[in-house]
Amino acid sequence: MRRLHDAGFAAEIWNWTRHEIDALAATGARFTSITGYVTGNLTEPSGIAALLDSAKRSLEIADRLDCAALNLHGTGLGDGGIPVDPVAKVTAAMWFAARDTLACVAELGREAGRVFVLENLNHAVDHPGTPFNRAADTLALVEAVDSPYLRMNLDLYHAQIGEGNLIELIRRCGPAIGEVQVADVPGRMEPGTGESITRRLRALDDIGYRRVVGLEGWASGDTDTALASFRSAFSFGRAA
Predict the structure, then answer these.
(1) Would you say 149 and 110 are in contact if contact means Cβ atoms under 8 Å apart?
(2) CATH, residue 156
(3) Helices and strands counted in the chain (H then E)
(4) 179 is catalytic
């Protein structure tokens, strides 16, 4: 964290229960996102209760790290990113339950003055069995809740694998985006290691996006070189 901070980057962490929070805070790093839940899901009564309880605990951690955003998925993820309770088919009842649960999450965010972001994932490579996995799904839920305390985490790596047509997707999601995450396809590494993303980045600039962009992936080699590639790709003549 100190290394990222010294290089001028902010940081995000996954599963805050695995970290010593006071030690993280002492690094001086700026945190833009943490996990917004530890257990539970959006659709089953017991899972909803667990998710809301862990969202409250996550907000306490966000306070300690002065972190503005908390990340959510369609369901809890276990080892290797595989859903704890994989779903073969999402029913209408599950859609309505997810909407109502996310409305409760947004209210928690409003009370705390922090924003929850709902991330899209992909089925084909990384997260089979995740409900509400497409960006189109997360957008529909965010728009249904219609709260400034619930936005999308538009992960372009996942969307490229699962949906494609990313420039139009960026334009469509526009004001609903609270964060963007990127990694090149294939390989999930830094910009320049896979398919070109230059036009997609320009699309973000064109819609006036000025919030967080997170590099969620692996370095192809030297980490400083990977970070420099990331900074260069997203600068557009401005400070990274």
Answers:
(1) yes
(2) 3.20.20.150
(3) 9, 7
(4) no
From the candidates 107, 111, 119, 163, give the one annotated as an active-site residue.
119
Structure token digits, residue 86: 């994989």
pLDDT (tens digit per residue) in 60-90: 999 999 999 999 998 888 888 888 888 989 9
Which of 44, 107, 143, 216 is flagged as catalytic? 216
Longest dimension (CA), the chain: 49
pTM of the model: 0.89
Amino acid at 70: L
Q: Cβ atoms within 10 A of the Cβ of 84, count?
A: 14
Q: For residue 222, what are the domain limits?
A: 2-235
Q: Number of structural domains, the chain?
A: 1
CB contact at 8 A, 164 and 174: no
Angle at 175 between CA 169 and CA 178, to 5 degrees: 90
240 falls within a domain: no
- Residue 237 sits at φ, ψ, to 5 deg, of 85, 0
Arithmetic mean of pLDDT, 140-149: 98
Q: Is residue 43 part of a domain?
A: yes
39 neighbors 76 (Cβ within 8 angstroms): yes
Question: Is 119 one of the annotated active-site residues of the chain?
Answer: yes
> Rounded to the nearest 5°, which phi and psi values hold at 35?
-65, 130
Residue pLDDT, tens place only, 177-230 = 999 999 999 999 998 898 877 778 888 888 999 899 898 889 999 999 999 988
Q: Annotate 160-211 with three-state secondary structure.
A: HHHCCCHHHHHHHHHHHEEEEEECECCCCECCCCCCCCHHHHHHHHHCCCCC
